[in-house]
Amino acid sequence: MLNGVCTQGGEPVHIIGLTGGIASGKSTVAKLLESHGAVVIDADQLAREVVALEEPAYNDIVAAFGKSILNEDRTINRTALGKIIFCDPEARRRLESITHPAIGKRAEEKLAELKMAGTRVVIYMAPLLIEAGATSRVDEIWVVYVDREVQVKRVMERDNITREEALQKIAAQMPMEEKRLYGSEVIDNRGTLDQLEKRVKVLWETKVTGKTGKI
Ligand SMILES: CC(C)(COP(=O)(O)OP(=O)(O)OC[C@H]1O[C@@H](n2cnc3c(N)ncnc32)[C@H](O)[C@@H]1O)[C@@H](O)C(=O)NCCC(=O)NCCS
Ligand SMILES: Nc1ncnc2c1ncn2[C@@H]1O[C@H](COP(=O)(O)OP(=O)(O)OP(=O)(O)O)[C@@H](O)[C@H]1O
């Protein structure tokens, strides 16, 4: 039994933690894995769900950060909240102390649902898997890796922000050179999308399906 979780038929569900720095390419890898048939739980998506209007975490965030972080329709203005937490470690810890337990609870619920449905392999995509101490939730870790310069360039382009703002976001996470050491598999995404596609295909075929894979 892996990770203490069994499917209904007794077959264990194998959970692969997919992590990496901001804009390393996790979502791109997750989409490729989905195209091969993988089931993905996206912690960023869970983080959005748990702060929806009237959720307990929503009320705690408004109490902690005030109404200035709200949009006119009372939903959380994510850009405004991001501006606060990416330049203030103390504020970031306060936000995480609210969101992380709620994300963890939601992730466990999703995993239980998938287990009941007989899913054998689940990809748990979480940017802060290691920083949040959530590695015990997964059976193995795959790290999507890019070097600092590629990371800065992709964050700037995708989020339309300055180099300084990109560096600030990157500094809020464990450095990629350190994070990559946690991976049983490191997916080097410094190359082209074509190269990434090929690497993910090989990983899927050797580590998940096929003779040596999990299913
Ligand atoms: C700060 C928030 C409001 C910014 O929202 P926004 O929609 O602009 O970005 P999004 O949620 O898509 O996150 C983009 C990326 O930012 C990075 N990031 C998000 N939160 C954090 C954080 N607390 N510390 C470091 N990096 C973070 C991640 O790499 C993530 O993939 C939002 O990210 C948030 O609520 N963060 C706290 C919850 C959390 O820890 N999420 C990560 C899931 S494990
Ligand atoms: N090999 C590649 N070549 C060029 N661009 C890429 C490559 N891989 C990903 N990208 C682009 O880089 C950006 C970041 O990728 P992606 O959103 O998948 O990263 P992420 O790790 O999920 O980010 P975040 O942590 O912010 O959620 C996106 O605009 C994506 O299209």
Instruction: Indicate the radius of gyration in whole angstroms.
Output: 18 Å
Shape, principal axes of CA atoms: globular
Strand order, main sheet: write it out. Answer: 2-3-1-4-5
Question: What is the percent of helical residues?
Answer: 40-55%
Bound ligands, each once: dephospho coenzyme A, adenosine-5'-triphosphate
Distance between the termini: 15 Å
Class by SSE composition: alpha/beta
Structure in a nutshell:
The chain is built from nine helices and five strands. With 215 residues, it is of the alpha/beta class.
Please outline the helices and strands.
Blueprint: E1 14-20, H1 26-35, E2 39-42, H2 43-49, H3 56-65, H4 78-85, H5 89-116, E3 121-125, E4 140-145, H6 148-159, H7 163-171, H8 176-179, E5 185-188, H9 193-208
Parallel strand pairs: 1-3, 1-4, 2-3, 4-5
This protein binds dephospho coenzyme A (COD) and adenosine-5'-triphosphate.
EC number: 2.7.1.24
Main location: cytoplasm
Family: Belongs to the CoaE family.
Report on this structure.
By secondary structure, this protein is α/β, with parallel strands linked by helices. It has a domain at 14-44 and 103-207: Rossmann fold. The chain is built from nine helices and five strands. A five-stranded parallel sheet has the order 2-3-1-4-5, with helices on both faces. It starts with 13 loop residues before the first strand and ends in a 7-residue tail after the last helix. Dephospho coenzyme A (COD) binds at residues 22, 43-44, 47, 78-79, 81-82, 85, 92, 95-96, 99, 103, 126-128, 132, 172-173. Belongs to the CoaE family.
